[in-house]
Amino acid sequence: MSAVAIQLLILALLLLAVPAIVGSLCIHAGEWGGKLIFQWISGHFLLWAGFQVICVPMVLRQCSVTGLTQLYSGYMAVLTILAAALAVRRWKKGQGCWPWKGWRKKKLGEGALLWAVFGAVLLFQLAQAVGMVFEDGDDAYYVSVASIAESSDAMYQVHPYGGGGTQLDNRHALAPFSIWIAFLARLSGMRTVVVAQVMLPVVLIAMAYGIYYLFSLSLFPEQGGQRALFMIFTELLVLFGNYSVYTSETFLIGRLRQGKAMLGSIVVPFLLLLLLELLKKLHRGERIPALLYLLLGAAAVTGCLCSTVGTLLICMAIGLCGVLGAFCYKRPGILPPLMACCIPCGVYALLYIVLK
């Protein structure tokens, strides 16, 4: 097997297989908890949250990328083994189910042509994202930080422009999304630029559409054809949204290797999806599962991983939803756990102020 094939296999395990297994821990978090796409996305958020918690202290202590890789790999292994063990336990108790159980033969033809159109447009977008990749001005910093960290084995200790030593950049060090890219490159052996500009867009764009698909399940619970139309119109908005370099569509297609694009295109939509599920359960008078709060906390920490702005945006969204839910449905009991979900954001915001 060639070196490139081995590198692709390792990245597939890190970005596809491992998150899907870890996400099985959250199958009871919501109505779509048993779906493979939700397990894959939620698994990524659990892993990203762990990376943020592990990486920031190591950056502040000026540890090496090698040490971070070893420690975070152990975290991934523990979660993977735990998720696999719980899955086997569910199967032995007769509680196991296939994550694609909702696909029935009688529904395969329902909107099949529309879903084929969606798949074709998605493949076109993925091909364009890779084939027409461009170097955004911010890549001179973010991709350089990842490349230097992987090659020098030091995090935020080398200036990304001049190459000399530099003081710790607190604002970026508290949101080390670029170091996660360096981790992927270090573990797979692939060049950091290739990981950032070729491999990640394919995975993260597909993840963004996976979140939109989960939204469509809530908007159109019974009509498969309407869900397909919703996804196609979403693709059209993205295709023709590049009327400015600052639009969310431009960030989605061309800049997902940057933390702030990741925050707006994936973290915030997933957070809104979880909050929508929270409000639906409040409306029905149902008990809020602890796993839903866990995912909200993971989304909050992931927002901090992507950008320091995420500390404010995430707290605002969770706080506003919590106050409205407690007031409208007379469920003040949801406020303490939602406040607990925001604690990591407060800690990183306070740490930013202290270090500044």
Question: Can you walk through the features of this model?
Answer:
By secondary structure, the chain is an all-alpha fold. It is 72% helix and 0% strand. The chain contains 14 helices and no strands. It has helices at 3-22, 36-60, 65-92, 112-131, 139-152, 170-173, 177-188, 192-219, 224-239, 248-254, 259-284, 290-306, 310-328, 335-355. The termini are far apart.
Brief summary:
The protein is mostly helical and 356 residues long.
| Helical proportion, percent range | over 70%
What fraction of the residues are assigned to beta strands by DSSP?
under 5%
Low-confidence parts = 100-106
* Number of distinct helices: 14
Q: What's the overall average pLDDT, rounded?
A: 87
Radius of gyration over alpha carbons? 20 Å
Number of strands: 0
Which H/E pattern describes the elements?
A: HHHHHHHHHHHHHH
Shape: globular
What are the salient characteristics of this protein?
single chain; 356 residues; mainly alpha; 72% helix; globular
Set out the fold topology:
Layout: H1 3-22, H2 36-60, H3 65-92, H4 112-131, H5 139-152, H6 170-173, H7 177-188, H8 192-219, H9 224-239, H10 248-254, H11 259-284, H12 290-306, H13 310-328, H14 335-355
